Amino acid sequence: MYATPPHRHSATATLAALAAAQFAVTLSTSIVNVALPAVRDGVGLSDAGMSWVVNAYGLAFGALLLLGGRAADLLGRRRLLTAGLALFAAAAVAAGLASAPWMLVTARTVQGVGAAAIAPAALSLVMRLHPPGPARARALGVWGAVSGAGGAAGVLLGGVLTEGPGWPWVFHASGIGAAVVLAVTLRLVPADPKEADGPRPRLDAAGSLTVTTGLVALVYGLTAAGRSGWTDPLVLGSFAAAAVLLSLFALVERRHPAPLLPSRLLARGAAGPANLVMALLGAVWVGLFFFLPLYQQQVLGAGPLEAGLSQLPLAAANMLGSGLAPVLARRIGPHRTLLTGLATQAAGFLWLARIPADGTFLVHLLGPVLLVGVGLGVAFVQLTGSAVSGVEPADAGLAGGLVNTTRQIGGAVGLAVLGTLAAARTAAAPPDLAHTAALTEGYRSAFLLSAAVLLLGAALTPLLSRRTRPVREIVPAPPPLTPPCPTHRTR
């Protein structure tokens, strides 16, 4: 059953409100990246504490996405979206007012909780308000373009605010923006439909607890591994706890009458293989937004504002790719469209793997960045469409939460591996090699591995194609709801 916006409001305005909600979440994942040194000095953070300004948000966001998706289905999507926006806005303002490290990290954690409610609820509302067909394809194309642009816009805005009014406004801007979106959402987005008579399914409390704590342990272990090493006792203990908790989650789900992650969600359509490839693409997306600004600032000597401005071509290319995805899917089919996006990205990363220590943006970065941006837009739109197509309306929120959970966890795993590789390659450089040249060697290795990951994803796409054949309606959908969230910093 699909709802339509109230007559007094246009469908375009309603879609704009939902896209703005997603943009707020996307922006907040990257807006702090270039502001971290200023945040460290302003609040008195240590180098390790500085990484937790990002990690706290990512841990809460990634671990609670599944719960947020199911809560949207059971409690009401608009209701959860507005509650998430309110919590998100309050926590962002509190982060900007923080005067001690614990206050800032706590506020960022609460902000991540709000984001985990916003992301799946907003996507499922887009699916509910736009029935299958050209209308949904257009809506999700717009959604994908806005989502992809948010990451680059965050880096740009972060640089402008850090060099202008100061680092607190990096957080205040997110809070004010979310508050405006909340007011618009209350006015434009239609209320949740009335519930049918009969018993109401209960939230799977045991499944929610085990999967949330298990994912927290996993992401924490991956985060700590990049800083302390893969054999550190705390890292190994976190991985062991994650294995136990996620195994318990699987047992609970098999016995619960209304499981948090029903098996039908992965068994139907292309959800299973699509989420697997999404995890690989999430790793690549996170690595791009993490290593590219580092190369520009630590090797090329760019300032925060210059590094932010250089994200504009990437954002434009991503928006172009998101707009091209539905067109390509109609002309050459979804399978070839996805392969085209993956191949274009791989070519861009192979180009980035040749960056020199004395490079320039126009000569050595602009070309590959445009290729990667277009490829990411095409691939994420088509891939997410495959992950949510064929899903029952009652599971729309959960499907949105799942595809973002796999992206978030894939990003954490990918960045831990890429960061470790880059750090090891830099450390292994000859002693007489300049520090900037050694750093460049590490970044080049990370980009080369990213290209290999994309080729692995391309090799897995036949699985997705076979699974999607029985499904009648394949609609391109947006890229991951939240762009990359770096989990540690390579020195």
From TrEMBL:
Its main location: membrane. InterPro entries: MFS, MFS_dom, MFS_trans_sf, Sugar_transporter_CS. Residues 471-491 are annotated as: Disordered. The chain crosses the membrane at residues 50-68, 80-104, 110-127, 139-161, 167-189, 201-222, 234-252, 273-292, 365-388, 409-427, 447-464. This is MFS transporter. It comes from Streptomyces erythrochromogenes. Coiled coil: none annotated. It is found in: Cell membrane. It comes from the Bacteria.
